[in-house]
Write a structure and sequence with these properties.
Mean pLDDT: 86
Order of helices and strands: HEEEEEEEEE
Distance between the termini: 28 Å
Low-confidence stretches: 1-15
Oligomer: single chain
Structural class: mainly beta
Radius of gyration: 18 Å
Strand content: over 45%
Largest sheet: 5 strands, antiparallel
Number of strands: 9
Number of helices: 1
Shape: elongated
């Protein structure tokens, strides 16, 4: 009987966790002094009452892009991204139902081309109900 009582809370905690994975739309970023605001990424309705635990991201560029600036935003909160792959706890506690956007800026100087293609991206939201 004791093992059933001890195991029960752990089973509930595991069942309350979830992960939402979505591909990021490809986009072309042109040289500009202003960031490009990407397409809104809407989480599925099934996580409407959930809270974010961790956010992970990945994307690639078609050209070397050391001067590319990137931000991951949810509503008005934006987090600068230091590299094209990573994870953060900075969104922890926020509603998992809020829309995300990636913002990019390709500065007008410091590279050989006037545009960069962002592709192969993925956003992974770990959440709890």
């Amino acid at each position: 009987m004791l093992s059933t009582i001890v195991a029960w809370p752990f089973a509930l905690a595991w069942a309350a966790q979830g992960t939402w994975v979505t591909p990021l739309p490809s986009q072309t970023v042109v040289a500009s002094e202003r960031p490009l605001v990407g397409v809104a990424i809407q989480p599925p309705p099934s996580i409407a009452g959930a809270e974010i635990v961790r956010v992970r991201w990945t994307f690639r560029t078609d050209v070397p892009a050391p001067t590319l600036k990137a931000w991951l935003c949810q509503d008005e909160f934006c987090l600068p991204l230091a590299r094209p792959r990573g994870e953060t706890l900075q969104f922890s506690g926020r509603s998992a139902a809020g829309r995300f956007r990636l913002r990019f800026q390709w500065p007008a100087a410091g590279h050989d081309t006037d545009r960069a293609m962002i592709s192969g991206g993925q956003l992974i939201i770990d959440y709890r109900q």
